[in-house]
Design brief:
Blueprint lengths: L5 H4 L12 H13 L5 E5 L6 H13 L13 H8 L5 E5 L6 H11 L9 E6 L6 H12 L5 E7 L7 H4 L3 E4 L5 H15 L5 H11 L3 H14 L6 H8 L4 H12 L3 H13 L4 H20 L11 H6 L1 H6 L2 H18 L5 H13 L7 H13 L5 H11 L36 H7 L3 H11 L1 H7 L3 E5 L4 E6 L4 H9 L5 H8 L4 E6 L8 H11 L3 H11 L1 H10 L6 H10 L11
Parallel strand pairs: 1-4, 1-5, 2-3, 3-4, 7-8
Antiparallel strand pairs: 6-7
Helix pairs in contact: 3-4, 5-6, 8-9, 9-10, 9-11, 12-13, 13-18, 14-17, 17-18, 19-20, 22-23, 22-25, 22-26, 23-24, 27-28
């Protein structure tokens, strides 16, 4: 008897047997039950995910005499003839070899004929995007006004190449690649039905190679069944498909953790001398680092990596050695190396350079953590007294600088600082800078408001202040373009009374006024307040470097710069603070 490929032998006979496309099959079954099936569908998605299979099942459901609940029976003569391609009323066309206008005109003429055997006439066009422009034009009229009991099902991997005039006349369903669990479950069931012995490592390799495609996975399984004696495991599949054993990446990990470039180069030499594909190894290294990063971010994500529990356990020391930031940077570099290696005529040279770079990898350290450690060393009696105070100062997040010194608006004697007198009216443009400078506690006031109400503080930053000591007034002027800010402050003005009294040393009546354009604070004045009240990490570091020569030399030596907030948060989650070791620190 002629051997039948596994992918064909186990092609689904009902919608319920289709794996991973429930969003498509569920909708189609409901449409069949309600009698609301469209005359034309476009099934798009990656290869091997079930597009043509679903089109055939739909053709069966439209013609099966025993169809119930929207599902074909799969056992009657009609269903079997459609599966074999012998049913006259279901015509399947490969658009890659029938691209011309004449082919579509012939199809159009056939569509006008009444069904010969079944209830409906169905045309399935695979890879429909391969049709020529003229062929698409020939389809337009019949798609817009199709004969009764005629249906068109189009399958494609590139829906963007289908003209919009065609797409607008069809209902479209997007098929998805299958998940690892879906592929694993289906392939294990087929192995059990075929009596094929496959262990977890072998199944993991097959699922990984399938890359979400059921047809690819079953084709690989077919090849493994024909080639392997006994149990299908990772060792057999590595030899069969020319893969790289996962143990080699663990061996490379050991060399990298030990900073042993010689061992890493010896590994590459062994790969080359045994005929291993170095490009495959470089690609696998990218995947390996990605798996390490996923497990480092959250060990609960182990289902997202193609590794067995035993292999994940072997990675535990590797995960403990490298930080999340290290793995992020290494993954980025490995991707760049692979991009060069797979296009190079000298892959070995570039791979050797890559593994040496990783073996000499400079660990990523947050500058703030380094500064904090230096501060602890100084506090414990370490050397560098001349720079110790500066380093300790740099370890703290910069506070806004103002004449009050301690952020309370009081001078060293505990009395409120003197404020410049002046008119209670709006400050003129010429006097704007002087007015802003005269209100020496303005930055402190905005900072205090920022701690409890950042929204009001942001509004205050757009105003120009002036104080009338005799009249007991704090006037803030806003240009017309910032009238919205003024209204926000008017609505929340009661929340400002406390900060005003605390910072300025006594209660002041707050007056908010509009002035003509150009009479408000300049952009530089607003930015100066913002830098004092809410400096960016980069601005804070720049100021600390100016204040501390030791820190400036340190940052210049390591070429450090602030991390974005998102990366900083990931780093802190991956590197929680530890209690200082008094004996060592």
């Amino acid at each position: 008897m002629t051997y039948q490929a596994i992918a064909r032998k186990y092609r689904p006979e009902t919608f319920g047997e289709v794996v991973g496309q429930e969003h498509v099959t569920g909708t189609l079954r409901a449409a069949l039950r309600k009698g609301k099936l469209s005359h034309a569908y476009v099934f798009s998605g990656p290869r091997g995910c079930g597009k043509t299979t679903v089109a055939r099942l739909l053709a069966k459901a439209l013609n099966c005499p025993d169809a119930g609940g929207g599902d074909p029976c799969g056992q009657c003569e009609t269903c079997r003839d459609i599966a074999r391609g012998n049913f006259l009323d279901v015509l399947e066309i490969d658009a890659a070899s029938n691209t011309g206008v004449d082919n579509i005109r012939e199809l159009r003429d056939m569509a006008k004929l009444a069904p010969a055997e079944g209830h409906n006439r169905v045309f399935i066009i695979d890879e429909v995007h391969m049709l020529s422009k003229g062929a698409f034009n020939a389809l337009l009229k019949i798609l817009e006004e199709p004969p009764s009991r005629v249906f068109f099902f189009f399958a494609t991997t590139e829906p963007s190449k289908i003209p919009r005039t065609i797409l607008s006349r069809c209902q479209r369903f997007d098929f998805r690649l299958l998940s690892r669990d879906q592929l694993t479950g289906r392939m294990q069931a087929i192995c059990d039905a075929e009596g094929v012995a496959v262990d977890d490592t072998g199944l993991r390799v097959l699922v990984s190679l399938a890359e979400g495609s059921m047809r690819d996975g079953l084709s690989l399984l077919d090849q493994a069944v024909a080639s392997c004696e006994g149990t299908i495991d990772e060792v057999a599949l590595v030899d069969l498909f020319g893969l790289v054993r996962s143990e080699l990446y663990l061996e490379l990990d050991q060399a990298l953790m030990a900073a042993d470039a010689a061992a890493a180069l010896a590994l590459v030499d062994r790969l080359a001398s045994t005929g291993q594909d170095l490009i495959v190894f470089a690609r696998g290294l990218v995947t390996h680092l990605r798996d390490l990063l996923v497990l480092k971010v959250d060990p609960a994500l182990r289902q997202a990596v193609d590794l067995t529990d035993e292999q994940i356990a072997q990675l535990t020391p590797v995960l403990a050695h490298f930080s999340e930031q290290d793995l992020l940077a290494m993954l980025d570099r490995a991707g760049q190396h692979y991009d060069r290696i797979h296009r190079s005529t000298q892959p070995r040279l570039l791979l050797e350079a890559a593994v040496v770079e990783f073996a000499r990898w400079e660990r990523r350290v947050l500058l703030s953590d380094l500064i904090e450690r230096l501060r602890r060393l100084v506090a414990a009696g370490g050397t560098g007294a001349a720079g110790g105070g500066g380093t300790a100062q740099a370890a703290r997040r910069a506070a806004p600088i103002d004449d009050g010194g301690d952020g309370t608006g009081m001078d060293a004697a505990g009395a409120p600082p003197a404020t410049a007198g002046g008119s209670a009216g709006p400050p003129t443009n010429a006097a704007g800078a002087a007015a802003a400078e005269a209100v020496s506690d303005w930055s402190s006031f905005v900072e205090v408001v920022m701690q409890t109400n950042p929204g009001l503080a942001a509004c205050l930053m757009t105003g120009l202040p002036s104080v009338d000591p005799e009249g007991g007034r704090l006037t803030v002027a806003f240009e017309p373009e910032n009238a919205f800010m003024l209204r926000q402050l008017e609505a929340g003005g009661e929340a400002l009374a406390g900060p005003i009294a605390r910072v300025f040393g006594r209660p002041l009546r707050l007056e908010l006024i509009l002035v003509e354009a150009g009479a408000g604070p300049s952009t530089d004045q607003q930015d100066e307040v913002r830098r004092k009240v809410a400096p960016t990490d980069r601005e804070t570091l720049a100021r600390q470097r100016r204040d501390d020569p030791v820190l400036d030399r340190l940052v210049g030596m390591v070429r450090g710069e602030p991390l974005p907030d998102t990366e900083l948060e990931r780093w802190r989650r991956a590197n929680p603070p530890t209690e200082p070791d008094d004996e060592n620190d």
